Amino acid sequence: MATAQGDGTAPRQAGIREGRAASAIRRARVPADAERSTAPRRAEAAADRIAALAGAAEAGARLGTKDELRTMCQVSVGTFNEALRLLQSRGVVTVRPGPGGGLFAAEQSPMVRLGNSVLALDARQTDVADAVRIRDAIDPLLIEDALWHASPADIADLRRQLDVMRAAADAADPDAFVRANWGLHARIAAISPNPLLRSLYDSLLEIIESHTLSVLPISGLSLPDYIHERHALHVSLVDALDARDRGRAIELTRAHNTSVNRQSEHPTS
After folding, report:
1. Helix or strand or coil: residue 115?
2. Predicted model pTM
3. Which of 56, 57, 84, 55 is nearest to 68 (CA)?
4. Using an 8 Å Cβ cutoff, are 229 and 171 in contact?
5. What is the DSSP letter of 257?
6. Which of 153, 216, 234, 245 makes the best surface tag, with the fewest CB within 10 Å?
7. What is the rounded distance in angstroms from the CA atom of residue 70 to the CA atom of residue 83?
8. More confident residue, 153 or 196
9. Tens of pLDDT along 236-255?
10. Distance of CA 78 to CAs 7, 90, 176, 192, Å?
11. Checking phi first, is residue 64 left (phi over 0); if not, alpha (psi -120 to 50) or beta?
């Protein structure tokens, strides 16, 4: 009567059962763990897909219900909710409840517009707006310093950066163009002999870059024409610096900031 317990058979059998159960649980968890690991990427992909719809629609246009868009993106409810959070934080969509509700293309604020492209920003858009305003205010100081202190090597570096901008413009790649553009302005700032001014500009540019998530096209506007126009303006600016033509350089700086503020009030100038 005590033999089954005394010979250790029952504990061994219980251990086997527990081991099998644990293995089954581990196997069951693999898909869930894999899904969790890919969920952020799937949420980003879903957000990008819906953002493209919003970018091609008029402000206020209905994009669809949550269920319709989730089905289109082929993601789970949790992943879709994360995508929706990203879209709302970037100001891309608005959500309206009730009959006739759903997701709607948001009215983009001026500070997230760049002519025919939108920089998708994270939640700290106010920080970016302030950084852009201060950056625009100190641009003339940096141009004055470049007029006085730019060496032939500096001008050569600026022209190489213009080549990078040109390549991005020819490829109609707004993201690469924006970053090459920032690189050109950072290189102009590096010419200044004033360490405080250089440090301030670098800090402002870091704020702008660190809160920019992506560059999205806006329908109805010619992206290639716009970025080629911006490239030409910067070529003229570097030419003015090379010629030490202060009047022309200041005029172009004013036109540069005025056109950016009029079209977008955004840092991709």
Report:
1. coil
2. 0.53
3. 84
4. no
5. H
6. 153
7. 10
8. 153
9. 999 999 999 999 999 998 88
10. 51, 19, 32, 50
11. left
